[in-house]
Amino acid sequence: MAPPPPLIDDVVAEILLHLPPDEPEHLFRAALVCKSWLRIICGPGFGRRYRAFHGAPPLLGLLMVLERDTHIRFTSTTSMPLFPYRCCDGWHTRVLDCRHGRILIQVFHGRILGLVWDPVTGERHELPKLDMDWYIYSAAVLCAADGCDHLDCHGGPFRVSSSLPAVTPMPRTW
């Protein structure tokens, strides 16, 4: 008996497009079925079509740093399993910002450093050290891609903007 004819990519893409957005693990599992489905789901236009069809993506979860805890916890709001990539286990961290799939973290691990982390891919970028020993109070990670509409800028170039308090350092003696 001959194998069934392969499905046309456009038909598969249309079927995958109708998977519900509130349970993103369905797309993840579909991508594991075969290489052609993975190629379709990870293709340049699928994410954009999926968002146009379903609207704003659902909240996948929350990042929490509990008081007196040393690492970031991800709490899922769907039945999707935890992200396979950990960021800073055992390090004291502070989440400063989160946009476009990236998380800006201030890490205290022997020294203070800034880190931009992608929890989906596990990719981490250590930021250059500032020429001052200040604690950063506020910062943002921003997309730096030219002409980006910010619907599909996950993984592209980024910039970090931070603000420091305008205070005079206190003397060490009382």
From TrEMBL:
It comes from the Eukaryota. Residues 9-47 form the F-box domain. InterPro entries: F-box-like_dom_sf, F-box_dom. Pfam families: F-box. This is F-box domain-containing protein. It comes from Lolium multiflorum.
